[in-house]
Amino acid sequence: xxxxxxxxxxxxxxxxxxKDQESLSRxxxxxxxxxSYLSRHRKPTxxxxxxxxxxxxxxxxxxxxxxxLRNEWEx
Length: 75
What we know:
Blueprint: H1 9-22, H2 26-41, H3 62-74
């Protein structure tokens, strides 16, 4: 998708310097910059969160384990 973005002149000068140095187009440099920004600022999905699937290695189902613990309360 195309979009129009206004950038200060000093950004354009720096982008032109980088495009010559990296042998890339200005558009590619901007795409990479946006991709980098988004990857640093996006929120992890449920599957990427550290605690997801923490119970999967257990031999007992979570609900069964809860019932065992709650039965101790009644004893």
